Amino acid sequence: MIPPGALVMLIPLVVGIFFGVETLSGVLAGSLVSGVQKVHLKCCFCLGNICRLPSLHPTRGAWDNAKKYIEAGASEHARALGPKGSDPHKAAVIGDTIGDPLKDTSGPSLNILIKLMAVESLVFAPFFATHGGLLFKIF
After folding, report:
1. What's the pTM?
2. Mean pLDDT of each 10-residue bin along the chain, 139 residues long
3. Contacts 24+ apart (CB under 8 A), 8-14
4. Of 12, 66, 67, 102, which alpha carbon lies 20 to 30 A from 81's?
């Protein structure tokens, strides 16, 4: 867990110092929109599966809703799938069981990473504003 933590802590510092405030704001906006820094994940071998996390979080909700849909039996299609204990219901229960860890781990962990990057960037913003953008000043 040290490489992922170091990645989240170092990216705002490196970008702010070498590229400046404007580029750092782009990195933060990109991490907010995508939920994770996909560009930097290619460099870190231990984070390869995090690219799938933004798509896994809503998947859990779909599996949970499928189970509720079958259990409720509110429509003709849901009643045709069968009652509790039928094969479609068993499959939906398995999907919900697999999907629960996705909801409980991916969403909260990404939220913490995004907040940490934003707070760190705000703390160092005055430094980046005065001394940041070294590459642009050199070239």
Report:
1. 0.56
2. 84 94 90 57 42 58 78 82 84 81 68 86 94 88
3. 8/113, 8/116, 8/117, 9/116, 9/120, 11/37, 11/40, 11/117, 12/117, 12/120, 12/121, 12/124, 13/120, 13/124
4. 102
